[in-house]
Structure to design on (360 residues):
């Protein structure tokens, strides 16, 4: 049996293109997402047209200057056309926003401020606009002399705040394991069928189940190597997946068994290598995006969430993140592990019913 397993591992590893993409595809995702800074706000260059000799102008400019992500330039006397000309300039000193503070036109009337926004990023625009709105409100309170009744401070509930990339790391590892296990095994079995390997196995004294078990075992071993490589890369880039210890690896490999079973089901139900790969992609692609690989499933519409919450990848990622990010014990993952076990048993039964050497 060990010789058969070793031979099956060599057959899987021999497909260098498949192995390359099983590692390269998730690593590319990790590297690309690491280039983005989701935890910091980009610098906003703002030009303020205000008379700093007046209390409103001085207070507003001073308050804006205290905001870490804002770079303030004061140019008194600008009108709207001049502000738009500044905003439309291209080059290294590009201005993102213009704030025009116009003095009161009558006693007892407030000064007016007009914010002109040239930020193309909708998220950055919303953040900067909200910040300036808060600053204007705070400046109004300061100028009227109303004392603050409430001062707000915020802090994370846990000891350490989880960054988006730390959230993303287990998601991309799980995505890579799912796609390789499903597509690779389904493709291998389809290729064995088309090349007559399964038919020749039936003509030998070797029990088909031993050959089949060795193929599954080989993919489990390769998946173990895959998760070790991907976890090492994710850790090096700052995902901190090693905080989950050995249980992170165990959960990842256990979840992979589900997708290997799904690969067998696809290979048994669909004939033709091209059709098999298409069917495998049709299963894995929606799961990749719906199960929380890239974003929390709480962002999904309420109507979709009940369906998403029964998907195997959802619970696999929940358990992996619980171990690595929330520092929970393996015992605390029992709800996710229970659902995963149900998927293992259910897909195993379907795989046994779907794939038969007699069809080879």
């Amino acid at each position: 049996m060990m010789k058969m397993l070793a031979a099956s591992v060599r057959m899987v590893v021999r497909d260098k293109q498949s192995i390359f993409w099983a590692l390269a595809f998730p690593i590319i995702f990790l590297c690309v997402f690491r280039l983005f800074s989701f935890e910091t706000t980009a610098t906003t260059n703002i030009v303020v047209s205000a008379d700093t000799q007046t209390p409103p102008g001085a207070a507003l400019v001073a308050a804006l200057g205290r905001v870490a992500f804002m770079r303030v330039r004061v140019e008194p006397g600008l009108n709207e056309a001049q502000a738009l000309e500044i905003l439309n300039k291209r080059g290294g000193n590009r201005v993102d926003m213009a704030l025009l503070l116009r003095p009161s036109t009558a006693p007892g009337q407030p000064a007016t401020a007009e914010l002109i926004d040239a930020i193309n990023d909708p998220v950055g625009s919303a953040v900067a606009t909200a910040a300036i709105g808060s600053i204007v409100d705070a400046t109004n309170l300061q100028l009227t002399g109303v004392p603050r009744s409430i001062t707000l401070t915020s802090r994370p509930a846990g000891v350490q705040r989880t960054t988006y990339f730390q959230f993303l790391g287990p998601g991309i590892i799980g995505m890579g394991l799912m796609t390789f296990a499903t597509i690779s095994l389904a493709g291998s079995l389809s290729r064995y069928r088309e090349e007559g390997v399964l038919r020749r196995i039936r003509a030998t004294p070797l029990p088909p189940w031993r050959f089949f078990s060795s193929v599954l075992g080989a993919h489990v071993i390769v998946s173990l190597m895959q998760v070790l490589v991907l976890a090492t890369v994710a850790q090096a880039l700052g995902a901190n997946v090693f905080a989950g210890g050995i249980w992170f690896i165990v959960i990842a490999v256990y979840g992979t068994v589900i997708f290997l079973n799904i690969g067998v089901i696809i290979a048994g139900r669909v004939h033709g290598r091209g059709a098999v790969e298409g069917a495998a992609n049709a299963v894995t692609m929606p799961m990749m995006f719906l199960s929380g690989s890239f974003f929390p499933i709480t962002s999904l519409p309420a109507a979709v969430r009940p369906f998403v919450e029964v998907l195997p990848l959802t619970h696999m990622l929940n358990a992996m993140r619980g171990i690595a990010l929330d520092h929970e014990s393996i015992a605390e993952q029992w709800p996710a592990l229970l659902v995963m076990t149900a998927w293992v048993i259910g897909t195993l039964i379907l795989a046994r019913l779907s794939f038969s050497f007699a069809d080879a």
User: Anything to note?
Assistant: The mean pLDDT is 85. The domain at 44-144 is CATH 3.40.190 (D-Maltodextrin-Binding Protein; domain 2). Strands lie at 44-49, 70-74, 97-102, 112-117.
